Amino acid sequence: MQWVQSNIKDDPLLEALDVLRQLNAANLRKLPEYVPLDFLTDDWLRYVMKADGTISRRYYELSVLWELRSNLRAGNIWVVHSRRYANPETYLIPKAQWNELRSEVCSQMHVQENGSARLHEQRRELAALLQSADAFLAASGQGEVRIEQGKLVMPRLKEEELPESVKQLQALVTARLPRVELTDLLLEVGSWTNFPEHFEHAGGSQPRTSERLVYLHASVLAQACNFGLHQMAHVANLSYDKLAWYTKWYIREETLKQAFTAIVNEQCHQWLSQYWGDGSFSSSDGQRFVTVGKNRLATALPRYFGYNRGITFYTWTSNQYSQFGTKPTRTTARDATYVLDEILGNESELPLVNHTTDTAGFTEVDFALFSLLGRGYWPRLRDIGDQQLYRLDKAGAYPHVEPLLKATINERLILDNYDEILRVAGSMQIGFVTASLFISKLQARPQQNILTRVLQEYGKLEKTIFILRYIQDPAFRREINLQLNKGEQLHDLRQFLHFANEGKVRTHLEEEQINEASCLNLVTNAIVLWNTVYMQAIIEQLRTEGHQINDSGLRHLGPARFEHINPYGQYTFNVRQELTRKGLRPLREP
Questions:
Q1: What angle do CA 204, 207, 209 make, to 5 degrees?
Q2: Total number of domains in the chain
Q3: Contact 45/54 with Cβ under 8 angstroms?
C-alpha cells in the first residue's frame, strides 16, 4: 500500500490494513490464520480475542481503523500527496537546508544555536529565581502567597480601586463622545485609513464604480452584525444581486486581513494608544457563538450552548486594544493549539514580543516554542497550586521552595535533541508550517513522539522560571490580568455588534465563517480607532478648558465603548402616507 507509509519498518498496522484490503477486494469474511496483532493495545485485545482463542473480524477491523486514525493524527503514519496527513518531516525545513539556514533563522528568533549555552543561561536564571523565591516565601510566612500541605496558595489579585479623579475623567469622556450611526462610523474610519482599497477583485482589476464603497461597507456590516446578505439588502434598500456579487469577488480572508491590519496600524500611531501599551504585549482568547444548521466546526457543549451546538471565534488582542487576528475553531479544541498562529503571521506594525492567555491557552509545549522563538509566554494559570515545578540539578538548598520542586529536568534529553526542536521552531518562524497544524500533530499521541517529549521537557523548565517570577511579582501579575481584561472588554463590544438573528452563526462553510469572523474583527477595530481618535479630541478640549489630566487617568481610559453607537439603523414613520393609503400594497412579482 504505497499511498500509506510509516516511520516504522514493516509496520504491523500497515500489514493489518493490507490484509483487510485484500479480504474486502475478494469479498471474503473469514480472517486468514495469521494476522498482525503487535499494534493492538491491551484494551483492544480483550475485544479482538474471543474466549475460544479465535479472532473477531468485526473488532479486528474496528481496532485497525481506530489505530490508523490515531497514527494519522500523530504523524506516525502518513498519506502520500496528502496535505492534512502528510509526513511530518515534510512540514519542517529539510535537514540539508537547515544546516545552511540555522544561523540566519536563530538570529531572527534571537536564540542561541548551541543547546549547552542556552541551558547554561537558563540555569543561572533559574538559580537566581529559586533563591529569591525561597527568601520571598520565608518572609511572607502565612501571608497571601504561601505553601500549605505542599501546595502553593495564591489568592486572586484584588481589583484595583480607581481614584476619584479617574472616575470623573471617564464620566467626562463618556458624556462628550458623539452619538453615531455604525454605518457612518465605518465610512469615517474608511476615510482615515483607506481600508476599502484593500478589497481587490479576485479576478484582477475592475472599474471603480460609484456604488462600490456602498456595497463593500454593506457586505462587511452584513457579516459582522450577523444580518446576512438578504436582510442587509432589505434594510439598506440595496440590490441583493449586487451585494452578493461584491461579497463573492471582493470579500475574502486575505483582503479582510489587509483591511483590518490597516486599521490596526493606524491605531498604533495614535498618541492616546501609547498610554495603553507599546504594542509589544498581546493576549488571545476564544468567544463562543451558537450555530444554526449543519456545521463542520460546530460541537455540542451543553455548558455553553444548552441543547444547541456552537463554535468559537478565537481572537488576538494587542495592549493597544487592537485585534490583529481571528480564527474560527472548534469549541472543544484547546486554545493552546492556535496561540502562535497569528503571532507568527502578524502583518501589522505591532512589535509583538510577549503574549498571555488564560489557562485554556497553556501547555508546556507552548512554553517551549515561545522560548525557542525568542518570545515571552506569560499565561494566567487558574490552577497554579497544582502545577509542578522542576529543577535542573540538586545543587542549592531552597527549604521553602522545596515542597514545590517535584522532579529534575532531563537535561540530556534536551541537549541531544536541541537542534531538532530548534528546527521545529525555525520552520514555524519562516512559514514552512503553521504552528497549529504541527502542534496538533505533536499532541495527538505524545507518548509516541520524541519531539513532543523533548518540547515538554524544555517547556517544564520555562514554566518553572515563569511561575517563580509570577508568584513574587504582583505588578507582573497585574499586567497580565490587565491585558486579559482588555480582551474581555472587546468580547463585550463584539457581542454588541453580532446581534442580529439572536447572534447565532448561520454560515455553514468554513470559508464563510472565516469571513464572518474577519468582518467582525474589522468593525471592532474600526470602533476602537474611532473611539480613540474622538477621545483624543475630548482630552485636548478638556485641557483647553483647564481640566488637569494626568498619565494615570489616561491609562485607565479604554476605547472598547459602544453606548453611543447605534448599530440598528433608523426607523422612519410615514404617518401621512400610511393613513391616506387606498387599498392594499402591491403584491410582489414571483
A1: 135
A2: 1
A3: no
